[in-house]
Amino acid sequence: MTETLWVVGGEQRVQFSKPKEWTQYRKAMVIEVHDGRPQEALAYESPPERCPDGETPSHVFKAATFEGDTAYLCTQTEVLVCDFPGFRIRRVISLPCFNDLHHVAPAPDGRLFVAVTGLDAVAELTPEGELIRLVSVLGGSPWDRFSPDVDYRKVPTTKPHRAHPNFIFFLDGRPWVTRFNQRDAVPVDGVNGRPPFDIGSEEGVHDGHIVDDGLFFTTVSGCVVRFDLATGEKTVFDLNRLNEPDEDRPLGWCRGVLPVGDGRQAWVGFSRLRYTTLRRNLSWVRHGFRETEHHRERPTRIALYDLRCGRPDLRRQIDLEGVRMGAVFSIHSA
């Protein structure tokens, strides 16, 4: 049986010194993987008027949403609404409050919700792209910390972020958002009958996919976390436990999960670890990474896991570096 997947992310620049995070991507990319063979489906660079001045701009697609005949993609400062699977760009939405966007998702009624990571906020837009409101994920107003008079598309970075919201999903028709730094997922509008989902990992959280009665997240440290929506029970699948006895290389930056069927299997994305301060600071790298003069990081790839047992089983891996993809942000099927 043939299978087609789409992987969203970017090509990283070759840099021989410590790179600035907001300059490291050369090209935003969508890769089509048909029956295990990857090929480029879309490459994109943001125009200069929607990039910071005085810096080498970073071109990358963060997490996307594919729905029906439409693909919703986001760059650092834009939302692209495209045909699917052809990826003809229908329209581009770019607002002055857009900085370091990480995800765009349509609500059931067509409104768009965008994770504006640079402002620790979520933007609610009309289907045409007009701003309805900008909601802080930390309470209060985003304008308590940021100025409404600044065009944040021209600001290279607002780091350090206090929350780093990075993924939108809908539960009972209401928007929720993951907060990387707090390692949880909370309702955009505040408490609405369900408590926050506390991932409980020592590292950050990403994703938020609902399949049947399960809600799936990833942690950058290499775990898939599933919540039973009926009982609230949490199950953690630690993918690091699959390492061979002589394998001391970390899995890579884990981000992007696509549950398959009823959620008993899942595709998971891994990005090759590059030279960054994160590599020296993250505890899961320090504990599992043998310091040597030359490191052999695992390649950027997607991997299929069977989650039916307590210990997940690796079924298949697809290397993406042959098509120049250096970072994975989300994985999609038709």
What does this structure look like?
The chain has 334 residues and is mostly beta strands. It has a single domain (4-333), classed as TolB, C-terminal domain (Neuraminidase, 6 Propeller), CATH 2.120.10.30. It is built from 2 helices and 24 strands. It has a 4-stranded antiparallel β-sheet, with no helix packed on it. It has a 4-stranded antiparallel β-sheet with strand order 4-5-6-7, with no helix packed on it. Strands 8-9-10-11 form a 4-stranded antiparallel β-sheet, with no helix packed on it. The longest helix is centred in the last third of the chain and has 6 residues, at 283-288. It is globular, with a radius of gyration of 19 Å.
Order of helices and strands: EEEEEEEEEEEEEEEEEEEEEHHEEE
Number of strands: 24
Strand content: 35-45%
CATH architecture annotation name: 6 Propeller
Q: What is the average per-residue confidence, as pLDDT, rounded to a whole number?
A: 89
Beginning-to-end CA distance, first to last residue: 15 Å
Q: Give, in spatial order, the strands making up the sheet with the most strands.
A: 3-2-1-24
**CATH level-3 fold name:** Neuraminidase
CATH first level: which class?
Mainly Beta
Computed Rg: 19 Å
Characterize the overall form: globular
Alpha plus pi helix count: 2
Low-confidence stretches: 277-281, 286-294
Helicity level, as a percent range? under 10%
Largest sheet: 4 strands, antiparallel
Structural class: mainly beta
**CATH H-level superfamily:** TolB, C-terminal domain
Count of individual domains = 1
